[in-house]
Amino acid sequence: MLKFPENFLWGGATSASQCEGAYLSDGKGLSTADALPGGKTRFQTIFSPDFDWEIDETKYYYPAHSGIDHYSRYQEDIELFAEMGFRCYRFSIAWTRIFPTGIDTEPNEAGLAHYEKVIDTCLKYNIEPVITISHYEMPLYLAKEFGGWQDRRLIEHFVRYAKVLLERFASKVKYWMTFNEINGALHFPALSLGMIPRTGSNDKQLVFQALHHQFVASSLVVKLAHEIDPAIKIGMMTIYATGYGYDCHPANQVANMEKNQEINGFCCDVQAGGSYPSYTQRIFKKYRVKPLKMATDDLALIKKYPVDYIGLSYYMSTTIDVIDPERAKVAGNLTGGAKNPYLKTSDWGWQTDSAGLRIGLNELYQRYHKPLFVVENGLGAVDILTENKKIHDSYRIDYLREHIIEMGKALEDGVELMGYTPWGCIDLVSISTGEMSKRYGFIYVDKDDEGQGTLSRYKKDSFYWYQKVIRTNGKNILTKE
Length: 481
Description:
The structure is a single chain. By secondary structure, this protein is α/β, with parallel strands linked by helices. It is built from 15 helices and 16 strands. Strands 1-2-3-4-5-7-13-14 form an 8-stranded parallel beta barrel, surrounded by 5 helices. A two-stranded parallel sheet has the order 6-8. The two termini are 16 Å apart.
């Protein structure tokens, strides 16, 4: 029987821009997420050289503007999380609710008061808040006027923002993460770096420079947090996609090694390991990146203040094939890759691989010897609401059960695992397509891809299943009950 620690943090995860809505309420400023149009062509639009962060509601629908109205309904939603038995709730704070433009000298008290109520509601139900400081959004002003994180001045603005949060909530919130899926910047710089083609997102020199600024900012926040309260834990958050060579051809194995270093290793080596890895020069040579601009104490700061733990999202593995360019391809969270003939494929073309999670957890723990926290994992699928308001999502239960089993095996391997917060524990807007129909939650939200619906909440079959998982601390996981 699999055994999870008694203090294991079972819970769920959301982000502000994908669920809150109320995009201009109570003094909130515009964020980059507010300027992302919905639809399957979302990424094609923001990768276009014509994209300029302008909001044109006559041309596009912007799902972040309304989300699922979690901003107004957080009490109702957290009560449902409590009914499931959540021990923690991972959510993010919208930077623009605290500093509307990012350069404001004084924080917006209405925004701070709102999150204090959210935090207090969690604590009322003995739910530990786990807060992401920047989750794929930033003040639109900083993206338009500064070109995003390529400008070193963003370090100062971000640390000021983080300082306000930490000083306000340090007594109530122990677990924090700085940047969501920081390595996603290598492929989707608009989301985390606030950079688009017009401002250099296709220039790897600028992308790596922007990442360096985030590394420095993260270390400064670790330093600040530990000065405020040594008990605070600051984590990084990375996409982890366990990689395989398609076959035993040495070229595929080498290609897989190099991709794992670039995607899974680089940001972790800096933020968790405390230094730029030895293979940095190979990556920089590949992308023709010249030495980065650094302040004299940047590297010492990064070395002295690494993160306390590693948060990761895991949805799928990737398969590398450089031998056969005609090999069938699949989509993915960070990158796609060759189609793995041994894996199932989701409604959105992502291949599911629960064993890859165990492999990835072992790879991370053996390399960094830091606690790990699976803060995103889940199945995006089309759910059908029946006439009697039921959702029979056995496919989601199967997916989650298989991944939890592999986490249990990783614990047996000796991996130090803090907790598990499946992604979007309540249906929310997909970051990749802006769709509601790509559902992840234990709770169904009545809203469609065009923004129509009652916003009523309904419990899925997976709601009751996960409730029992938490109640038994995973002891029932080997059954479908």
